[in-house]
């Protein structure tokens, strides 16, 4: 009687049988870890904090719109009444003065701020750059009313000789034309005060951007024979371009919404004049609201709130444009 021995091929050999998959087993998938209560609470608080910004912005927009409706409905543009107040005639000079002063302040502040930021980040010794950076940061914390007192009491008399010289010798330029007479509480002085106020903001942000320039790129430029200025022009400034734009837009937003400093320095007016040395020609939206809101009737308050809505839209549009410029610079 002979017996046949059955041999089973070892696993991994070509003749090894393959066990069929279990039909009833669930498909394999990524393992899911249970979220702890602390993670859920933190995630919820983070989402709520982010949504709170949008909710606050929406509530402000709704408030300004609703409280402006009486002035809009009673305006000459809707009623056709010649005796009604025209919101365009009321708001347009304020918008002109606000934007004009902010642009002048930005033109004066940005070159100085970029120069200070480059000096702190690339030229000054560390033992001197650190205290200077602290001083710039502290300057940003000075209240606007202090800048207003400084501008109205100390700066105005000291700028009068310069303004009279410009008015006498460069009056063919529209900015320096007109009849300039002391006291020089004009748009030029207000722009100088605004430039000083936004200078620390632009400087601080630009400084941090310049310090993040890749060190290897700077050393490569110097190794190729570039001078310090050529390295800054070819490496540092292109790298920090988007940051400088962002810093400038932050400063522009501060200048557009500034109230007390402009109110204490500028003699108000309501015109579209380009003569920045003539007092009583311009005013800003924020300063006009601050000066008239205390004793305003409901109708006047509604018009003031409408100007606030216009300022809200202007700042929103400017920030949107700034974001687009920064995004394009980042892609480039």
TrEMBL record:
Residues 95-322 form the ABC transmembrane type-1 domain. Residues 11-29 have a biased composition (Pro residues). Pfam families: BPD_transp_1. The keyword Cell inner membrane does not apply. InterPro entries: MetI-like, MetI-like_sf, Phosphate_PstC, Phosphate_Transport_Permease. It is a multi-pass membrane protein. Its main location: membrane. Keywords: Cell membrane, Membrane, Phosphate transport, Transmembrane, Transmembrane helix, Transport. This is Phosphate transport system permease protein.
């Amino acid at each position: 009687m002979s017996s046949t021995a059955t041999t089973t091929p070892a696993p991994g050999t070509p003749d090894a049988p393959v066990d069929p998959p279990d039909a009833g087993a669930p498909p394999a998938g990524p393992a899911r870890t249970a979220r702890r209560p602390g993670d859920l609470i933190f995630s919820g608080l983070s989402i709520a904090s982010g949504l709170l910004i949008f909710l606050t912005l929406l509530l402000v927009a709704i408030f300004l719109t609703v409280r402006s409706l009486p002035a809009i409905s009673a305006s000459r543009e809707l009623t056709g009444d010649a005796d009604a107040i025209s919101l365009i005639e009321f708001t347009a000079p304020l918008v002109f003065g606000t934007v004009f002063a902010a642009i002048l302040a930005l033109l004066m502040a940005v070159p100085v701020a970029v120069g200070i930021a480059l000096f702190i980040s690339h030229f000054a010794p560390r033992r001197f750059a650190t205290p200077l950076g602290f001083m710039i940061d502290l300057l940003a914390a000075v209240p606007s009313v202090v800048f207003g007192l400084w501008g109205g009491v100390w700066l105005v008399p000291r700028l009068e000789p310069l303004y009279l010289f410009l008015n006498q010798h460069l009056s063919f330029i529209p900015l320096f034309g007109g009849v300039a007479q002391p006291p020089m509480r004009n748009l030029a002085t207000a722009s100088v005060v605004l430039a000083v106020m936004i200078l620390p903001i632009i400087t601080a942000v630009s400084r941090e951007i310049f310090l993040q320039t890749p060190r290897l790129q700077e050393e490569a430029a110097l190794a190729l024979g570039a001078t310090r200025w050529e390295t800054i022009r070819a490496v540092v400034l292109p790298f920090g371009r988007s940051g400088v734009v962002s810093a400038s837009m932050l400063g522009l937003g501060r200048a557009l919404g500034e109230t007390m400093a402009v109110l204490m320095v500028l003699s108000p007016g309501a015109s579209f004049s380009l003569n920045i040395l003539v007092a009583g020609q311009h005013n800003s939206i924020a300063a006009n609201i601050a000066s008239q809101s205390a004793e305003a009737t409901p109708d006047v308050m509604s018009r003031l709130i409408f100007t606030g809505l216009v300022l809200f839209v202007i700042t929103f549009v400017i920030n949107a444009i700034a974001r687009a410029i920064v995004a394009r610079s980042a892609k480039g």
